[in-house]
């Protein structure tokens, strides 16, 4: 499972930070950062989700008010609508 995060879409509500330690507040930018993520060519940040963090990662995606976070299974199917 992996998580994709569109940082440009983020509005800095930091709800994801409260739900999963994979996100951290970046108060200088007013946006969250996805820890240990790699940036793709289209500006989306991606990282694998550890098995013990899958529930928290999904919840972080659910609470994002602007849907900047997507959780995908190994086949690329979005798990959280």
From TrEMBL:
<dbReference type="Pfam" id="PF13459">
    <property type="entry name" value="Fer4_15"/>
</dbReference>
<keyword id="KW-0249">Electron transport</keyword>
<keyword id="KW-0408">Iron</keyword>
<dbReference type="GO" id="GO:0046872">
    <property type="term" value="F:metal ion binding"/>
</dbReference>
<keyword id="KW-0479">Metal-binding</keyword>
<keyword id="KW-0813">Transport</keyword>
<dbReference type="GO" id="GO:0051536">
    <property type="term" value="F:iron-sulfur cluster binding"/>
</dbReference>
<protein>
    <recommendedName>
        <fullName>Ferredoxin</fullName>
    </recommendedName>
</protein>
<dbReference type="InterPro" id="IPR051269">
    <property type="entry name" value="Fe-S_cluster_ET"/>
</dbReference>
<keyword id="KW-0411">Iron-sulfur</keyword>
């Amino acid at each position: 499972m992996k998580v994709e995060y569109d940082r440009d879409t983020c509005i800095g509500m930091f709800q994801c930070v409260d739900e999963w330690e994979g996100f951290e507040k970046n108060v200088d930018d007013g946006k969250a950062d996805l820890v240990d993520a790699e940036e793709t060519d289209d500006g989306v940040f991606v990282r694998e989700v550890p098995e013990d963090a899958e529930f928290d990662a999904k919840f972080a995606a659910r609470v994002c008010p602007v849907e900047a976070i997507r959780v995908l299974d190994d086949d690329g199917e979005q798990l959280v609508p």
